[in-house]
Design a protein that fits this description.
This protein is an alpha+beta fold. It has one domain. The chain is about 15% helix and about 30% strand. It has 1 helix and 6 strands. The protein starts with a strand and ends in a 25-residue tail after the last helix.
Length: about 100
């Protein structure tokens, strides 16, 4: 079963039920064949919801409610830039001369 969240706050997430207490959370704005479509797996464990990230964070997180897990998924979808873009260039200081000063 595939469903977009009915809640406006979570309309960026497409959930696919994988079994009893397990879901795949996908970015609703990405095509299914895009490598970043699947954002995380969510599993209910002992009254908590564990999120295993495939995009964004590499650290698993636990939430007391499914809504908290969906909030976190939306944060990753909304705030993460695509890995397929060029990295942002970091400005560098000018080279140091032998006297220890920057050339001008």
């Amino acid at each position: 079963m595939i469903a977009k969240s009915d809640d406006r706050a979570h309309n960026c997430v497409e959930l696919t039920r994988l079994g009893d207490g397990a879901w795949r959370a996908c970015d609703a704005s990405m095509p299914e064949d895009h490598p970043e479509h699947v954002v995380a797996f969510i599993e209910r464990r002992n009254e908590r919801f564990e999120v295993v990230w495939l995009r964004g964070s590499t650290v698993n997180r636990e939430f007391e409610h499914l809504e908290g897990a969906l909030d976190a998924v939306c944060d990753v979808i909304g705030g993460a830039e695509s890995r397929s873009t060029r990295p942002i260039q970091i400005p560098h200081a000018p080279p140091v001369t032998r006297q220890g000063r920057s050339p001008r």
